[in-house]
Amino acid sequence: MPCYWWRDHGTWxxxxxxxxxxxxxxVKVRMDExxxxxxxxxxxxxxxxxxxxxxxxxxxxxxxxxxxxxxSQLLYQIPAQNQIILIExxxxxxxxxxxxxxxxxxxxxxxxxxxxxxCKTGITLKSCRRQFxxxxxxxxxxxxxxxxxxxxxxxxxxxxxxxxxxxxxIVFFANSRFETGKRKLQYLSFQDFAFCAGQLISYWTIxxxxxxxEDMDVDLEKEFxxxxxxxxxxxxxxxxxxxxxxxxxxxxxxxxxVYKLMEVNFKNLSRALINLASKLTHTKDVRDLFIDLVEKxxxxxxxxxxxxxEITLFLTHYTNAAHCLGTFRHQMIWDRYMGVIKSCxxxxxxx
Amino acid sequence: xxxxxKAKIVAGRHLPVMDRASDLTDAFVEVKFGNTTxxxxxxxxxxxxxxxxxWFKFEVDDEDLQDxxxxxxxxxxxxxxANDAIGKVYIDIDPLLSSEAATVISGWFPIYDxxxxxxxxxxxxxxxxxxxxLNRFRQSSCGVKFFCxxxxxxxxxxxxxxxxxxxxxxxxDPEYQWxxxxxxxxxxxxxxxxxxxxxSGELQRKIGLKVLEMGGNAVVGYLQCxxxxxxxxxxxxxxxxACTLDKLIPGTEIKESPLAHGCRSSHNSPVHSACSSQxxxxxxxxxxxxxTLVFTGTGGSPRICEFPFFTLTCFxxxxxxxxxxxxxxxxxxxxxxxxxxxEPETRDAWWEEIRQEIKSHAxxxxxxxxxxxxxxxxxxEEVCILSASGTAAMLNPRFMREGSVCVYSRFDDASPPSxxxxxxxxxxxxxxxxxxxxxxxxxxxxxxPDVLFTTIDLPAxxxxxxxxxxxxxxxxxxxxxxxxxxxxxxxSNLLPFMEYELHTxxxxxxxxxxxxxxxxxxxxxSVGENMLLGLASATxxxxxxxxxxxxxxxxxxxxSDLSYDQHIxxxxxxINDTIxxxxxxxxIHPPECIEEVVGSPIPDRQRSRLFRSTSESSDELxxxxxxxxxxxxxxxxxxxxxxxxxxQSLLTDxxxxxxxxxxxxxxxxxxxxxxxxxxxxxxxxxYRLNNANLTNQGLNKxxxxxxxNLLKSLYFKLRSMIPCCLCHLNFTVAVPEEELIQVRxxxxxxxxxxxxxxxxxxxxxxxxxxxxxxxxxxxxGENEEQLQFSMELCGESTSSNNQPTAKASVSSVDYGSFADxxxxxxxxxxxxxxxxxxxxxxxxxxxxxxxxxxxxxxGAPVTVxxxxxxxxLPRTRIVKYLGIINMFFIRETTSLREEGGVSGFLHSFxxxxxxxxxxxxxxLGGNAVVxxxMKECVFMENPNKNQAQCxxxxxxxxxxxxxxxxxxxxxxxxxxxxxxxxxxDGTT
Lengths: 351, 988
What we know:
The structure holds two protein chains of two kinds.
Chain A: H1 9-33, H2 43-64, H3 67-72, H4 80-91, H5 95-101, H6 108-112, H7 114-121, H8 125-143, H9 149-157, H10 161-176, H11 190-204, H12 206-209, H13 222-227, H14 233-236, H15 238-252, H16 259-279, H17 283-287, H18 289-303, H19 308-323, H20 331-348
Chain B: E1 3-13, E2 27-33, E3 36-39, E4 56-60, H1 62-67, E5 70-76, E6 84-91, E7 104-113, E8 117-130, E9 145-146, E10 156-171, H2 185-214, E11 218-230, E12 233-247, H3 262-266, H4 273-284, E13 294-295, E14 303-304, E15 320-334, H5 345-364, E16 369-380, E17 383-395, E18 437-439, E19 447-449, E20 452-453, E21 464-478, H6 484-512, E22 517-527, E23 531-543, E24 553-556, H7 562-585, E25 610-611, E26 614-615, E27 635-638, H8 641-652, E28 660-662, E29 674-689, H9 696-717, E30 724-734, H10 738-742, E31 763-776, H11 783-791, H12 796-799, H13 808-811, H14 816-833, H15 838-851, E32 866-867, E33 876-893, H16 901-923, E34 928-942, E35 947-963, H17 972-976
Parallel strand pairs in B: 9-11, 15-25, 15-26, 20-22, 24-27, 28-30, 32-34
Antiparallel strand pairs in B: 1-4, 1-8, 2-3, 2-5, 5-6, 7-8, 10-12, 11-12, 13-14, 15-17, 16-17, 18-19, 21-23, 22-23, 29-31, 30-31, 33-35, 34-35
């Protein structure tokens, strides 16, 4: 990962000695790779060549900060394909690193923690800084923009679809400040969270429901979160809860090994999911969405040794059964809620 | 009032933030031509202003049109204080004045500031309406075409070649005016840029006038230089070859040879060239060289000739009859002895003197003309060395205008074209120097010398055995610090020895490579405070017509010592081995010739001849016999350390890595299968020597290593591109002045490995080099293989097609040079961080980019402009010449360290210069610059004050080219990206 970066003219002086470090490191790596065997190179040539590349990169890096300029600038004549590759490579990040900053505020304070992250992940500090700055830059630009998040990122940073989606996840997490750092969440990878973010962006934001809506993709839809309170009826109404249980049990009987345990725990599980929904009006609880999912649902299931297939079946029938409840009138909200919760749980349910 | 210049300012983009408070800029534009200035409205609060101004009209003389540049200044409006300048654009409108060239200049130009570099871009439209004015006494020369190309431009036909034109203008250097003490560096730089722009305009106009008087319509091989003489002024001078060119209509074959006799009469002009320039000198009160010599040809009637010099290096078939050899002259002058420095007379007289000398040398070689002629200077303090060199030759008079060259009587012996030029032009029994002659190995009828040195390109029709290669001789000589006359004397005493040694080195290296001719020879001698540097580069070839070179024998002085003998014999063996190896390497397998018909009684000796002489301010001519005094086979005698060193240097020349070819001529002799892949590199290296009292040998070693390393690093950079050929390798050396060196007394041991290899001091030498890399494919494998380079980047699908030869491992790292720099780098560090992830990620990215159809934003893509020092682009056809590009830039910084030191500063400056050249070409509607060269690159530094200044002068011809066939659609990777690469490579 590129680790040399150019802050601004002011700090360059202090950076200069550090500039030599990556060069000599890089030279060493290239020597170990056997670069000296090619074309009668000697260390001097190799050093100068490396230095040259660092310099070129350093000059390009300024352009890479606003990729849209790269296409119209006159300083470098870079073919379009190469431009795309350059941008893509520059904005690529280590998911290990991204996992660490996920949900944190992209601020100066976090920047100080980069030392620790660097130690923890084994990624060089400079690389961490570049990745962090990339996150921050993308965040700053798209934060206030209207319209679909992924498209905004793609338009302003010319990233590929996959990478833009990953950035969307990072921006989304940073904006809502989801809790991801708890010990119990440590087993989840960046990809897990990115998937969940994708789900949340796609189904729970304003842009998700109404594409014409000129609003931001970054925030969850307030109205929807309020409506989620209505789902409480599923646990507060004793009859409805019993009926729900009967329907689910009927559908699952003989199909899952953990049937017995499910039957015993049904109410707890259902209560966990519904309570989670009803609490989401509070920002604090939104932040705890993932830790709650793990503590209230995933851990009990794991304790009872549910398999993924069993959870899939359970959640499917749990969702569908609610439709058959004559008195339950919040089908739309229910589906919108459960759809996301189901796919998130499935993504998160692993060791 | 014969012209109306119209300019329109359309828009700006990427402007810098000038108002810190709002992070925006209130920009407006001043358009200035001559003394007239127009302003646009202020476009408030935008970094991408849309002025869309009216047409600003300037009504001017065409004289001014030629001299003045259009000056566009972008400013930030400030209500309370003075408006801040953002930057400037100078547009040379000369290309619009010729009817055949561009009709409009329109495009984005980088806004340039001498302190900050490029700051945004501006879109400008410029047109010129010219009224026809046939005033006989006019001072303008609109319509005369200028070409930097040193051959007849590709889409023209030479009807007549009129001959040499030269001009010189002098002005006070703004940097040395009293006002410079009080104005800002920016103002001073801008004054200088503007002055040089004006002076080159004036120079071009005056040369154009001369051409018109001669009856020509174009100047080919136009070479403009400027001398920064310091206190005594700033000189801009130019030489060129006046021609009458006819445009070739594409598609029609010209069957009639251009030699038709009728041409001569059809182009008669009322005045003889000689007289005309004389008249000119009276009427305009500027001096031109007055014809002083009456030269009598061997056969023809006496005619008046001025200088029968030609700056061309490449000629139409049949033009060149015989070649005599290299002629050169140098002269050491003292600049503080000029009586009236503001007038050009003194310098004119100096050059006149040198040209006369060259002419007499050529005459001694039995030649009536000098081709491949060039002039140069090197200045250190008040000492100035003027040099001129060329190749003495006999030319076919039918191309000439009457009077410009004397008719050669023996013209009608029909020599076969493939060897005719090798035949000696001088009289066998009255040879100007001792030489060994044999009958031509090709036609067996005429005599040829055994070695031939020339400054021209290899004639296309020449028969060559094997391939050519770059041969360089490098030399350093220390001298004592001195002042004035003493210094000049010391230098002029050293010069002959330097030339002799360079010549010996060249000869040895030539023999070692088993070759017998040098083309494109360029000897550069630079003078510094306490040393002289000599660098000779040429392309060696084996001409089939010339005899095979003998080997090199080493003789010891004291044969008694046994170990000494042994030492010598091992050396001899090494030399013999090298010769055999080189024969193989360059594929030189001449047909064995047994019969040794020696025409001259003089035994084997070295004889290519270099006439030179040095004259200090006086006119004494000294001649030096450069041929070795040995009477037997080519012997190197080891009698002192010098000789040992010679042999060492001979053998330590690193061989070229396999797959690389290099030459300093336009095309590589012996290689014919070019692809259209082409890229240009410019590399500048600054080197500091430490303070230690270095010996000549020590210096030589350092200098040689420097050159070798430079070449090595080029090979290394291009390693993934092989097979490739480095063409037109052009080295320039400079030893900057003392004042900047003295400042650097402190000797910090620099910790960085690259920034300085030696602790700083004493000498700074700048090396600059530019060349073109052509890709060529030995053997047959044409198109498919060709794609190998270009497609590398674009993904797996294609790379799998051409597997057999593709160096998969390497190619995946290097994506052609631009991307190369970044991606190797990315690759490298990625590797460091995650060895495991690497493979998968890479393929992912690649396939993604392959699929990706995302277009880059900002509407129209930037036009791709190729740049090359060659006069052509392989496998393409130049359809139109749009005019000459001649630009001069100054860049200064007061924060050298912050900009990445000398290397960083030069690197970004050269990148900026390239960007500006490309922008100008694109605005003219062109898509390439041919015959590009960086004429001047002067770097000055004051590390104590953290300051540096650099001046760059570039020139070239803007052209439109088309690919020869559409099938050969090369993806843009190869064709475009590389030209942008500035290998500004500095070692501080």
